[in-house]
Each structure stands twice: as C-alpha cells, then as structure tokens.
Specification:
heterodimer; A: two-stranded antiparallel ribbon; 13 helices; B: alpha/beta; Rossmann fold; 3 domains; 6-stranded mixed beta sheet; 20 strands; globular
Amino acid sequence: MSKNSSNTVKEPLIHFTKRDDITGIKSVLVHGIGLLAGLIVCAVFIMLVTGLSPIEVYVKMFQGTFGGDVTRLKALHHTAILLAISLAVTPAFKMKFWNIGAEGQVLIGALAAAFCMLEYGNTLQEPVLLLVMFLTSMLAGIIWAIIPAIFKALWNTNETLFTLMMNYVATTLVGYFIMVKDRSGRSDLGILNERTGYGYLPKLFGQDYYLNISIVIFITILVFIYLKYSKQGYEISVVGESQNTAKYIGINVKKVIIRTMAISGAICGITGLLLVAGSPTPSINESIVGGQGFTAILVSWMAKFNPIIMIFVSALVVFLGDGGASATDALKIDSSVGEVLTAIIIFFIIGCEFFIRYKVSFRKRQKGDK
Amino acid sequence: MNSSAAIELKNITKTFGSVIANKNVSLTVNKGEILSILGENGSGKTTLMNMISGIYYPDDGQIFIDGKEVVISSPRDAFDYKIGMIHQHFKLVDVFTATENIILGHEDKQNYNSKKATQKVKEICDMYGFEIDPTKKIYNMAVSEKQTVEIIKVLYRGADILILDEPTAVLTPQETEKLFNILRKMRDLGKAIIIITHKLNEVLELSDKVAVLRKGEYIGTVNTAETNESELTEMMVGKKISLNIERSVPVDPQDRLIVENIDCKNREGVKLLDNVSFTARSGEILGIAGIAGSGQRELLEAIAGLQHLETGKILYNNPKTGEVDDLKDKTPMQIRELGVRLSFVPEDRLGMGLVGNMDIAENMMLRSYRKGKSIFLERKSPRDLAEHIIEDLEVITPGVTTPVRRLSGGNIQKVLVGREISSAPTVLMAAYPVRGLDINSSYTIYNLLNGQKEKGVAVIFVGEDLDVLTELCDRIMVICGGKVTGIVDGRTTSKEEIGLLMTNSRGGENNEQK
C-alpha cells in the first residue's frame, strides 16, 4: 500500500507495524515488564558504579519514602502536591494546549497566599482571611493562565513559549515581594506569621498535611468527573481531537480555550495556597514549587491524562525522586546516582509506549532479492 | 522538432490494495515537446507521475529514458535521470531565501558558495525569462513566486524532463500566461515537459500532445492540433453507464435556500467563490458538479456558517414560521438558534464530521450534547441513536464503543450520514458522500438521500462521478473556478455537456454557445 511495498526494497530484519488497539491487561503487562527491565538495568548500574547491593538501595529508597511513619506522610503530601499540579495541566493538555507554565501559575498562587497572610493577617477574622486567601490565590492562578490563553485564542500565539515566559515573570515578582518585605537581602522571609499563626490552614485530625491531602483527593474526583461526565469536558475532548469538528458543530473554540485554561490556572493557584498556608512552617521563596510544575507535565502524559492513573504515576515519581535522594544520603553515595536511577526507570516506562503502539515482528526468511 | 524520445512508459500498472490506480499505461514524450495528461479526479494522473519521479514503484511495466530501460526506485534515482517534478503542494522551507531553497539538498561536491549559487540561479532566470528576487524569503512570496522557485530548483539540478502537477490551479490568468511562455521557451530549448491538468483550454493552448486517462485506464494519446474540446471531453468522461439509481419526480418543490451573489476570497486574495447564485428547493436533489477545488467546499461551508463571505446573501425560507433569515456570516450556533434545520455531511469525514478517536455514541453526541440544562452529559439517548443507526443502516462494527476511525470508510460514512439525517433536517448538504465507498454502501447513501428528498428535504449533493450526478439529481449546477458555469436539468443533460462546463475555466463563454 505504501512506498515500502515496492519490490526492489529489501524486507528489513525487524518490522514494526502499527497496532489497532491494546487491551487493558496487556497494557499493564507491558508497563510491568518495562518497570522490571528498568529495575534490572538500575541494578546493574548500581553494582557497577557504587559496588553496593541493589536490593539494599531499593530498600533504602522505600524506607526513605513510604516506609516510615514520618517519611510516609511527607511522601504522601509530596505526591498530593505533584498530583494536584498534574491534574491542573491535564484539561489544557487534553485540549492540546501545551501549558508549560504550571510552575509560574502555582508560584503566583503561593505569592498571593503569602501576601494575604502578611497584609491582612491581623486585620481579618480567621475564616474570612482563609476565604480571601483562597480566592486571591485562585484568581492569581487564573490570571496567569488566561493571559496566554487569550493571546492564543485571539491571535494564535504560541502558548508554549508564552506560558514558559510567564514562569519567569512570576519568579521575579516573588523575588521583588521578598525584597520589599525584607530589606536585609535574604532570599526568604523565614516562617510567615510564626508567632501569630495567622492564615495557617487548620489541621485535620490534628495532623499536618491531612487537609492538603484531602483537598487534593477532592480535586482529583472533581477533575475526573469534569473531564469524563460534563458537557464542558466533552467540549475539551472535541477541541483537542479536532478544532475543525468543534467549529463544525458550533463549539466556540476560543471560549473553550480560555475557559479551560482558567480551570487549569485555578487549580494551580489553589495548589500554591496549599504549598504556603498548608505547610506547618509556611514560607515563600522563588523556588518553593521546585520544578514540580514541569514534572507534572511528565506525570500527566505518562498517565495519559487519566486522573486516576495519575495518582499512581505521581507516587512513583515521588518514590523515585525522594527515595533516590534519601537512599543516596543514607548510603553516602553521590546524589546524582539517585537521579540516574530515576531517569532510567522513567525512560523504560515511557519506552513502553512504543510497544503499546507498535507490534514488532522479525523477518521470517530471506527471499532471493535481485 | 527533435523527435528522439526523452521518456517512454510501457504498460505501467500500479495497484493499491484492490484499487487499480494505473492500468497498462503507455506514453512517450519526445525532447522539445509538451505533453498534457488529462483526466478527471482519481483517474490516476498523479500516481503515474509519482512513479516517474520515484515516489511510487510500478507493479508492472517498463520505463525507458533516452531509449534505455531504467529502474527508478527513489526520488534520488529520478534526479539522476534528470527528471524533475513540481508538485501541486510546494515543498519549500519558509524561512529560507529563494536561492537557499534552490540549492538545498543539492550535492555538487564543492563547498557551499553562495555567490556562485546566486550566479547560477541568475543565469537560469535569464535563460528562461523568470522574474524572481533570489534573496527574497519564501514566506514573503506569493504563490506564483513559490512555484517559480520550485521550477528553478529542478532546472538548477539539471532536469531535462519536467513534470508539473496541476501548475495553474493556484495561478491567476495572467500568471498562467507567463508560466506558459516559460514552458514554451523550455520546450524550444529541448526540454521534455509533462503537465498534469484537467483544464481543456490550457491543454489546447499549450501542449503538443494529449494523453487521456480515465479511472486508471489509459485511453489514448492524440495530437493537439488534430483534436477539439468535445473529442477530449468524451475521451475523459467516457460513454454513459447506466447505474439504475431511482429518481422520483419532486413533489411540490418550494424555494428553501436562496443563495444570491456570494463572493469568497482566500488569504491571498484569490476568489474562491465568484458571484455564485442558486436556489435549492425542497423535495429536490440539487447536484453540484465541478473539478475538485472549484469552490465546492467553500460554498457548503459558507452555508453552514463556517466561511466568511465578502458579499451576497444566503436566504433561508423557514417552512414552519414562513420567515426568511439571512445566514450570511452567522456562526453554526446562531444558525441553529434561528431554527434552521441544516445538516451537513462534510467532505472530510474524520477531520470535520466526526471525531475519529471517539466511539459511535460519542459521535452522535456531537450534535445533541447541548440539549438540556444539566451540566452533565446525557449518554443514554445518543447511545440509543447509535444502536438504532447501526441496525438501520447495517453498520458493521464490533460495538457502539468502537472508535469510529477503526471502521471501514463505508461504515464511517453511514455513521455520519445517519447522524445528520436523524435530526430531521430541512436542508441536507452532502459533499462527496460516496467517495471511497464500495458499490453497496454507495447505494445505501443514494437511497438515504432519495428518502430525504421524498420527505421534502432540500438536498444538495456535491459529487464527482458524472454518471451518478446525472442519474440521481433533479438539477445539476456546474461550477468552475468558483463561478457557476451553468445549471442544467438532470434528466435531459449529458455527461459531455457537464464535462464541458466543468472544464471551461474562462467561465460563461460556453453557455453562450449553447
């Protein structure tokens, strides 16, 4: 049917053909094999480079994250934050709007929360203060997200560059805020409202982070329902699949782009609030989001934009990142070893996509070519 | 005239699966000669040329160049045999200059020397009379300039055999004249030129010989001096074949959609629709015939609210209220809110009419998901509709949850037409609804359209097979280059009459003769 059917071209040794579809079980199996292969390659790497037992490293990785009581809560919280940002970018990605500005959208939400804590901490009642913080953080995230969306919708500007640049604006604004608040030249304002505790999110069951985790669970369910069962979620899918079809059935594509980015931005803004006010030691600095806005892109893609799978992918990424860091720490090996392990595993899991999409077959017999 | 053959094809055959694209095609082009290849859409012209230029490889047959048999298995081979093809869609790098594009990929075993290259480009321009600024960037160029760059590119590479795929499709009459002068000059300098076209007047004006293809088959070659328009048309469209499509007499036709003097331009300012006027009546099938790209798509999209119009009116007579609404420049949503029951089966089924990755039920939802106040989707009725269509139209699918892109072409079309009919339209527009469909599916579609007609729907059918058009439609409007060249009665017209109207790019003239 195509060019390579011509009879002068030799049939190649390995043949890749596109698969129609793959069953759920097979897909899980392929990913399982990928993960296992990744772990084996990691094991070889660990033995060659550090001379340690790979089992020991893996055990330490687990102990450093989901193994101990204290570390588990931290790892869960870390997972929740990463999950929240991943959920935030997902509606936009489903629409094929490549928002890589979650980092800045979260940061600006965090800044809004910190600003409210410091400015209105002693003037507003606690519930009112929390409400104001919540709304300003959300609004800040929305503004940061819809500026590129409006430009995209009206003038078809490149959203990737635009959202990326907005990150730097957010970072600079945080730097400026810190400089204005504290003229001593530090890069941090320390713990905000440390003595008064104004604007701290309440503890759920007396535990740090429980409220944050609960809020993220709630957001997960909302995003899942929104994308799967709402009319707006359906419009997002149609716009993402084909803008021509969307226009043909009368969807206002511009409106959907702006609305969807507003939702992305709102979730990012709320995540920023959780990062600041949801912490037992709230603080604000330029690197408070710590690159999770970018990691979230990876998580969202690896989960194929499915909010439920995203929970597990976030946990895996946190396990590799935090676990790798704590294992290298505990075993006194260079921290870059942990990063290499993370990279190998993620490489293998993403590599699975190839085998999900294509079937590999080998040439059976060599025919007499001319 | 130098009479030695530059290229000769003998019994070339090429099939794609079960579709025969070319069957036993034999051609000869001499040096210093222009050959036109004439044929309707899908007659295999481009496939044939792609085999000469190394993009496809023939299943059977031989190619001779300068009398020697050759194997052309890649574009590089073609280039080595000094064959140059100018494609319909230009293959240029936008941010490069003309010169950079011309020398791109050309290995002359020397270091890149922009001065020398520019010099050589200038020489070629002077030799053939091209007017181009070699330092101009492609994105600043008009379409005709881009085409010039493409032509210079193949000449720069030393091509002696030039193939041009519908070179005049994108040009204004003045630009066409200029191009023809250049082509004549090339011919006089001994190049062999093949142009693919379906414009009869150009064939007669420019070429020395004409080869005609019809549905993949080679009909014959004639000398241009010894032929005329009607002979070529007959060779191109063939004798009438009876298809036995039912055609009932329209019952109580009323003017439903009145299109008045609409104009539409593309971004380059070329008119895609030029003063188009017609009326579609209820209970009647109005056929639209024309070479692909004559403005059919723009016309339907304008009615559907997807295309901006310069001037004119699109009036809709509402049969329920008796009101008349102008649909010009309204969005599809606004048109629907006016109570206009317009259904549209677009040409691009998976890119516009349906979403390939969604299942049948979800595709049904495209039209109906807004119903109701709830913010959530109602999935039951689209699912019922999907099942209903699968049963009624005998759609072959593993189930309602199969993504439509995995269905066969005919089944995809049944899903799309089924959905569009299900909303009880008063106007139904269908663009090439049987393209790529097998006989049985095609007849299912004809019956569906006839059924709608009998229900009093104004059906607009854009087709390409003249046999079908003349058997199915009550009236046939022919367009050519965005202009209406005639509206004929489907019962009394002939394929030749339509064929002549279709290929008359000057527009109007032919009408006066008749």
